[in-house]
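User: I'm putting together a teaching handout on how multi-component assemblies are represented. Below are the sequence lines for each component of a complex, exactly as they appear in our records. Could you produce the 3D structure of the whole assembly as structure tokens, so the students can see both representations side by side? Please keep the chain order the same as the input.
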Amino acid sequence: MKVNKTAFSLSAHPVMSELHVGTVALQCSPSAVFVWEMEDKVISPEKAEEAKLKARYPHLGQKPGGSDFLRKRLQKGQKYFDSGDYNMAKAKMKNKQLPTAAPDKTEVTGDHIPTPQDLPQRKPSLVASKLAG
Amino acid sequence: EVGVRAGGGNDIQWCFSQVKGAVDDDVAEADIISTVEFNHSGELLATGDKGGRVVIFQQEQENKTQSHSRGEYNVYSTFQSHEPEFDYLKSLEIEEKINKIRWLPQKNAAQFLLSTNDKTIKLWKISERDKRPEGYNLKEEDGRYRDPTTVTTLRVPVFRPMDLMVEASPRRIFANAHTYHINSISINSDYETYLSADDLRINLWHLEITDRSFNIVDIKPANMEELTEVITAAEFHPNSCNTFVYSSSKGTIRLCDMRASALCDRHSKLFEEPEDPSNRSFFSEIISSISDVKFSHSGRYMMTRDYLSVKIWDLNMENRPVETYQVHEYLRSKLCSLYENDCIFDKFECCWNGSDSIVMTGSYNNFFRMFDRNTKRDITLEASRENNKPRTVLKPRKVCASGKRKKDEISVDSLDFNKKILHTAWHPKENIIAVATTNNLYIFQDKMN
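Assistant: Of course. Below is the structure of the complete assembly, with chains in the same order as your input.
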């Protein structure tokens, strides 16, 4: 039977941190070093979680922190078609009543071509922070 | 058993002091607190939020008759620091969220702070006005101009006291120097320069000069396909004006000396704890990403925060930290769900107390943790409106990892992962702490006498 060796050593490390599920607490003198051999079926909780994730998402990439993940992080934020699209989206958030022009439901970006009457005022009213209330 | 025993000789007994912010559960996104920082004297406490606003609180002068408590923090000034912008080139919104606030040491009557969003850093001057000129010859008191032909005598205008007015004005705007999102700013001990760091680059600025900045670190690969790590935090050394550190998403910290070369791409020291390859999992790199790095006040140590732990490094030892504290080790068996709900990417900050003997960091369920480096004891406390009575000592909390849950313990599955404490700050001199929940700011103090 294969044995998965898990080395656990108590060094002169000043802090004995909380032990996670799966290891066994040892009382011994600071100078002693123990290697505790565990059976194959006892996996670390982290590896058990990894197995769970791979079971749910079998196509998850081999390299976890790889380029795709980092590049997604570098470009955070919602992309808009253009500044008009952006301003329309902002106006929709701040002002629930939109002008009556019929929205084109097949358009992916923006609702309709804005006319001067549709565009919001340049500076919306500033709301004070509730911490200052 | 770990825990700070209430009533112990040297142990701090924390009491609720104040809470700021709305009570309702429905939190507007703009009200989410994104940074908290005491100034150098501790008299002022600044917060920044997702709506781009800064609120500054000032501690009341100590009342001689109320010797049992320190002064309360009241609103001193509030202003809109940043506004949302649109990046025309990339068709992306630039959030107004304040990522960091850093105070300058006080040099004159006014206070100065740097605040930054993803792209632009601003230097704000906060000044007091408590008198105004009266008795002009050509103007009425309400400002209307007088007809000069009606002036028959001349008088000398004088300053008269008025109600205190606190004004905030932007003195410098440091823009257009960062392609990626700014995660850190740090003022140098020379009090003339500061650094700003984004995901791939670090720039050095002079506080007086806004049209130029020097690039001192650039880790952008020639081919972006080769990108493997990003910069997550950076800070200047508190005493050596030539030294700074930056941390990475791979769990390393690099110390750089600006005297060595103009571009500090080659580090002077590399701090990294060796990993046991047999323990490596899909999550290893993600949870090793450092979310915050802070030098001790002494400058001898630095502290890093990764997803599950806080580590203290001695600047003289690169191969491993000298102390490691587990913040919430019970989450290791929940990493799968924490990855699915994105909590695994939460960026917790950490801070030192004034004497560098205790470190503090936040966790979930509005819990926050403190580790005493001398006694090796730790404590978990909760920021909640239920502990509202001033001078009542906070009760320590305990999370039950597995097995039978004792009375007063909370099980891991009951933790609210939407209630995260990412930002905490410790007064530079006193045992006063500021703890930010999603949209509330709590102030706790130690029990006096």
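A couple of points students might notice: Chain B touches chain A through 65 residues (CB under 8 Å). Residues 1-9 of chain B have pLDDT under 50 and may be disordered.
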